[in-house]
Amino acid sequence: MTLGPDGEQANVAALRSACDESRAVLDDQLGELSDIGDKALWTVRTSMIVLGVVASAASLGDARTLRQLHPGVGLLGVAGVALLVAASVYGLGTYFGADRIRGISPEYRRQARESGLSERDWRQALLRGYDEWIAEMEATTDRYGTHLFRAQALFLLGVVAFVLTAGLSLGTL
After folding, report:
1. Distance of alpha carbon 32 from its chain centroid, rounded?
2. How far apart (Å, rounded) are the C-alpha atoms in residues 12 and 35?
3. By 3-state DSSP, what share of the chain in percent is helix, strand and coil, each rounded to 5?
4. Boundaries of domain holding 133
5. Nearest residue to 139 via CA among 101, 96, 93
6. How far apart are the first and last CA of the chain?
7. Digits of tens for pLDDT over the chain (173 positions)?
């Protein structure tokens, strides 16, 4: 199929538009991944605050009172500590482990400068790259979204364990 000058311009304009839309999708995915990282760090900070509050509360009790508690209550408290520490570790892993693909690589930029491609051919190559980056970012976002969910679930279970520990310890005193 041979395109005349007007058809070629329309084709390049369509490719430009597709590149712009693809970049917008990639930017949205990057924003979502950044949001996952922010929430993971929030989970870590909140876990550490709760652990600090629990340590402070535990230090207020005397050793005799703590020894009077049922051993299961103590184990539940230890489980709460373990769950909050696990939530923090998971949250940090989620934050630091997420790969962020920012855009065209140095290789793409070099190719744009040196290849002598027409704008149409370059845009087609760029769209193929966007297809790969968007698919990779979708997989990355899904994977780290799952990790964030797990970190927050561990956090919530740890808080529930502490609430139960506090309730049971008040009931046994």
Report:
1. 8
2. 34
3. 90, 0, 10
4. 5-172
5. 101
6. 87
7. 444 555 667 788 999 999 999 999 999 998 999 899 999 999 999 999 999 998 887 777 666 666 677 778 788 888 999 999 999 999 999 988 876 666 667 877 787 778 888 888 888 888 998 898 899 899 999 999 999 999 999 999 999 998 998 888 777 65
The encoded tokens of residue 22 equal: 């693809």
Q: DSSP letters of 84-102?
A: HHHHHHHHHHHHHH-----
Quickly count: other Cβ atoms within 10 Å of residue 19's Cβ.
17
Task: Tell me how many degrees the CA angle 71-73-75 measures, rounded to the nearest 5.
Answer: 70
Residue-wise over 116-145: b if at least 16 C-beta within 10 A, else e?
Answer: eeeebebbbbbeebbeebbeebeebbeebb
Cα dihedral sign, 161-162-163-167: positive
Residue type, 23: R
- Those residues whose C-beta lies under 8 Å from the C-beta of residue 131, and which sit 6 or more positions away, are 22
Q: Is 142:33 a contact under the CB 8 Å cutoff?
A: no
pTM of the model: 0.78
* Number of independent structural domains in the chain: 1
